[in-house]
Structures are given as C-alpha cells and as structure tokens.
Amino acid sequence: MSLLAVDGLSVRFDTDDGPVHAVDRLSFTLGESEVLGVVGESGCGKSVSFMSLLRLLPETATVEGAATFDGIDLLHASPARLRSIRGRQIAFVFQEPMTSLNPAFKVGNQIGEVLRRHLGLSRGDARRRSIELLDLVRIPSPERRVDEYPHQLSGGMRQRVMIAMAVACDPKILIADEPTTALDVTIQAGILDLMRDIRERLGTAIVLITHNLGVVADVADRVLVMYAGRKVEEAPVHELFARPQHPYTNGLLGAVPRPGAGRLREIPGRVPSLAELPAACAFAPRCPRADQLSRTQVPDLREVAPQHHVACFHPGPDAEATA
Amino acid sequence: MSFVDTSVATISPRARRRRILRRRFLRRPLAVVGFIVALAFVLAAILAPVIAPYSAGATDFNALLAHSSRHHLLGTDELGRDVFSRILWGARASIEAGVLATLLAMAVAVPIGIVAGYYRGWVDAVIARVTDVLLAFPFLIVAVGLAAILGPSLTNATIALGIGAAPALIRIARGEALALREEDYVRAAVANGASDLRILARHVLPNMLSTLIVQATVAIPTAIIGEAVLSFLGLGVQPPTPSWGVMLSDAQSYLSQAPRLAVYPGIAIFLCSLSFNLLGDGLRDVLDPRTTR
User: Fold this and answer.
1) Which residue from A86, A140, A141 is facing B191, i.e. has the nearest CB?
2) Cα A111 vs. chain centroid, distance in angstroms?
3) Which stretches does DSSP call E strand in chain A?
4) CB-CB contact of B163 with B146 (8 Å)
5) CB contact under 8 A, B188 and A100
6) Domain segments of chain A: what residues?
7) How far apart, in whole angstroms, are the C-alpha atoms of residue B180 and residue B199?
8) Residue B195 forms beta bridges with which residues?
9) Considering the domain B22-55+71-287 in this protein, what is its CATH number?
10) Model confidence band, residue B6 (pLDDT cutoffs 50, 70, 90)
C-alpha cells in the first residue's frame, strides 16, 4: 500500500473576481522512500495541491476529494490531529530560505522548538540533537552555528537549516516546494545532493516541487507533470525523458538547455486563466497538435506504457525533440 | 563559507548586536540627554525619601511663600512647605502613573491587537471598529471621564489613563500582527505543526517588541501629562499628597503674589515629558532596521 494516496483532489479559491480553479481532480500516490518530482509552470497548482493536503491554505480555499496518509483522512482530520502530523509525519521546506526563519531566535532554538514539541525532548537534548541535525545537513562547525541568528547565515545555509528543521522528527514525507529556486546554481546542486542523501539515510519519501526539469532528472524516481491545475502526464523519470508523450512535456524538455542542442525552443502563449475550467484540453490553445477534438473535450488519462499515463488525444514524442 | 566572521566569532552575536545598538544610541545627543534627564527623574522618584531635604508635608511657618534661599532651594508655598522637596515627592506620582498606566495599556491592548490582527475575520472587524470609535474621542476626555466614574485617587487615575491609552496601542499591535502573519516563518511554523498560541507567543509577539518598546516610551510622557491634568482637576492624587498637578492647582490662588509656585512644577512636567519623548524618538531611530547610522 502506498504511503500517501490522493484521489480527485480539487482546490477552488473564492476571490472577489469569482472562483479560481487552482487544482482539478488530481490523483496520485506516493510510495515509501519514493522521490516524486512535480513539474509545471508557475501557477499550475503544484504548491497549492500539496499545501491543501495539510490544510495550509487560507480560508478562501475550498478543497474537495480525498487524501489518505497512513490510514488518516487528511482532509477531514481534526485540527489537533493535523498539528501532530504537520512537521512530525509530513514536513515542508518552502521556497524562500531568506525569510522562512524567525529573525528573533537562534537557529538552534528554532530546530529545538520542533523537537521539543513533537518528540518531547528536554532543552539540553534538543540542543544536542539540533547540532547533529546541522551536521547532517552539512553545515560546517555546527556547534557554533547552532547559536547564530538567521541573519548571520547565507541563503544556502538557511535552506539547509530549513531542511534540518524539516527532517528533525524523521518525517515519513518531506515536501520540498521549489527548495532551490532562490539559490545560486552551485548551491542548488549541494541542496539536491543533500535531498538524495536524506532519502538514502533516513528513508524519507520526498515530493520535489519544481519548474526545473533538470532538477527532477537528477533526483526523482517518478515525475508528475501538471498544467493548469490538471495532471497531464505521469511516468518513471527515465521513461519520461526517453519517451515524453504530452506536447506540454515535450515543450518543457525542449526548454531545458543542453550543450550542442542548438537554440532553445519555447512554448508559445501563456498559462490560461483558471477562472473557469475549460471544457477542453487546457493546453489546446498553445498546442501544435491541437485539433477539433482537443478543443471540445477534456482528454482522459490513459496508460501508454507501463506506469506511463498521459492526458492527450495525440500523445507521442516530438519529432524534432528526439531527432 | 566557514572562514568568514572569524574576527567577531569570539563575542556572541547578541553581544555584538547590543554593541551596535549602543553605538547608534550614543551617536544621538538628544536621545542621550533625554535618557539622562528621564533617568534623573526616575531616580528622584525612587530616592525622594533620601534626597528630599524636607518631608512632603513639613511646614515652616517662619517662611510662608518664601523666595528661594539656602534653607529652601526653590522657596516655600503658602503653608511653608518646601517646593523643591514637594517636586521630588511629586515625581513619584508622575512616574508611577506614567509607567503603570503604560504597562496597563500594553497588557490590555497587545493581546487584543494581536488576536484581531492574526485571526482577522469578524473578531477583527468588531475590534477595529470599536477601536476607531474610541479613538474618535481625545485621549484626555476619555481619561477624565473614566477617572470621574472611578472616583478620585492615584490608582484610579492610573487605570483611567491606561485604558484611555489602550485604543491607540491596539491599533498598533493589530497592524504589526497583520503584517507578521504573512511572514514566511509564520507559514513555516504552521506547516511544522505549531499551535496558534505558540505562534503568537514565539513568532508574532517577539518580532513586534521593538515597535512596542518605542510606543511605550512615547506613551509614558502622555500619561505623565495626563496624571498632572487629572490631579489638577482634582480627579487624581488628593492633597496633601504632593503631585505636580496638585501643586499647579494650589498655586492658582497665589498666581499674582508667587507665580514661581506654578512655574516650578510646570517646568518639572515639561522636562520630564520632554525627556521621555526624546528618549522615545532616539529609541525609534536606533531600533528601526532601516537606520544605518
């Protein structure tokens, strides 16, 4: 049985300009120790989907569907139950390391706070464990850093502290929402390396939310591609890169810089407004393969190869991309 | 990365920050003067029994309405009481009312403001509107009204001043909480399973402290003047207990013969509130993260 099973998850925001459908009937599973990459452009519902699982969204959001973690119905759990899961079983790492730490407290106290709350450690034990965790995320001289304030650390180090805080209670799932986007390229590589290390040493399942396919290729076991709140393709990582089916995935792959591949291709047009759910393939207006069928019906997900699902009437690799 | 900061690594970060703040403060002469004068008033209030040459009620019938002399530094009033001693004793009422009223206002306003700002919704709407209504009345009118209802005494005057000052502080605490609830670290704390109480106590309150400290130093002089006004009107400290307001009120009858009886307590009120104001302005500049000097 899978660790996390999400079925028909829909998220709608009620705004002053009417409802916005951020996520539309998203289903997926996550196994133990699995690394799932979630890819898509900004605003396609990646972050919202996962924040909705722990009910971290503002009150204007309406969440429907089902999400089961370890036998617990996340979307209907009591607030107290939910608090015991947040940070303990399912931990988040956010995109903004510069502002995700409280400037008023030493980093050691902030990691210690999580340990003391969820694991009931004493002040001294929490401090010792915090030093170990800082060491685990490869922060040099952790005995000294534990007593420093966030403003004394660089962005990369702060993100390591955030990861240390997230893995402090040995959670079953780590959800990393664009953990490397705000960082330098060289530091990105270090953080991704750390993610891999954590999976291997702690057996944590990781959800890696990103708009960078290169990041996914590096770390993920399986990839889920989202577009306009819908899942458009899902496949094991090698399968996806070898035989991308959806034209959007093809487009994303074409936009990854590769040595000697010549000019980067772009996807024409922009992400559609989510004010109303299109009764057609949401990608059709930007798609070179779109036809009458794409513009009048929503394509269902279908399996084109083992474990490889795609929601497209005309799947297949781009001729140009594979050439 | 580890080779930076080695020169300052020997002192703790907290000590270093304190040193920077102290240096910034010392660079502001007005703030330093304010601090010294305010401190002098506080010490005068605490040490009045020790340093005052006479007790507050001691009368010298050989020197009624006397001019300043070696025996009576600032002269005497109509009952032969030493004005200098009474000003020192009167500082007690002023400082006590100023500090306690401010603390009371904080104790009332900060929790209300934080709850309103953090939870938003109808709670916030109700609190914000009630605050607006209260703010429509001038501070002293509210304080005088409350003091009149509660009855004249220093304690009641302090309570009246504290409650009168609360609406403005509620608004400030609410504004800070509104901004802080959107901070990423608050979001991260929620995602880490922190309870609301813990978030408010650990993440919201500590980050608004510097604003609150500055507000407190601004609220103290207002409350000091308020105490003088209430005592002047007979709603605060009751004679014969000395208070600057009471002294001003008593001096009225002798304004033509001995205007100095009104001038000295007036100067005391002026200097005391000015010193706290200067201190507050200085602290605001020093604690403002945008300050570079």
Assistant:
1) A86
2) 22
3) 4-15, 18-30, 35-39, 61-69, 72-73, 90-93, 173-177, 205-210, 222-227, 230-236, 302-305, 308-310
4) yes
5) yes
6) 221-258+280-323
7) 11
8) none
9) 1.10.3720.10
10) very low
On the CB side of A64, CA atoms within 13 Å amount to: 9
Quick check: A205 pLDDT over 90? yes
The beta strands (E) that lie in A128-275 are given as 173-177, 205-210, 222-227, 230-236
- Look at residue B11 in the predicted model and tell me its pLDDT: 58
**Alpha-carbon distance B271 to B167, whole Å?**
26
CB contact under 8 A, B12 and A105: no
**Whether the Cβ atoms of residue A161 and residue A148 lie closer than 8 Å to each other:** no
pLDDT tens by residue, B57-75: 777 777 777 777 777 777 7
| Domain segments of chain B as ranges | 22-55+71-287
Q: Which of A166, A39, A157, A8 has the alpha carbon at shortest distance from A97?
A: A157
Helices (H) and strands (E) in chain B, counts: 11, 0
Q: What is the pLDDT of residues B222-277, one digit of tens each?
A: 999 998 899 889 888 887 788 898 888 888 888 888 888 889 989 999 999 999 99
- Rounded to the nearest 10 degrees, how much is the dihedral formed by the CA atoms of B157, B163, B165, B169? 150
What's residue B280's pLDDT? 87
- Give residue A179's pLDDT: 84
- What average pLDDT does chain B have? 85
Calpha distance B203→B181 (Å, rounded) = 9
The alpha carbon of A254 is separated from its chain's Cα centroid by a whole number of angstroms, namely 21
Give B180's contacts in chain A (Cβ within 8 Å): none
Q: Distance (Å) from the C-alpha of residue B35 to the closest C-alpha of chain A?
A: 26
The bridge status of strand A18-30 relative to strand A4-15 is antiparallel
Residue A145 clears pLDDT 70, i.e. is over it: yes
Q: Is the pLDDT of residue A98 over 50?
A: yes
- The residue to which tokens 């899978």 are assigned: A2
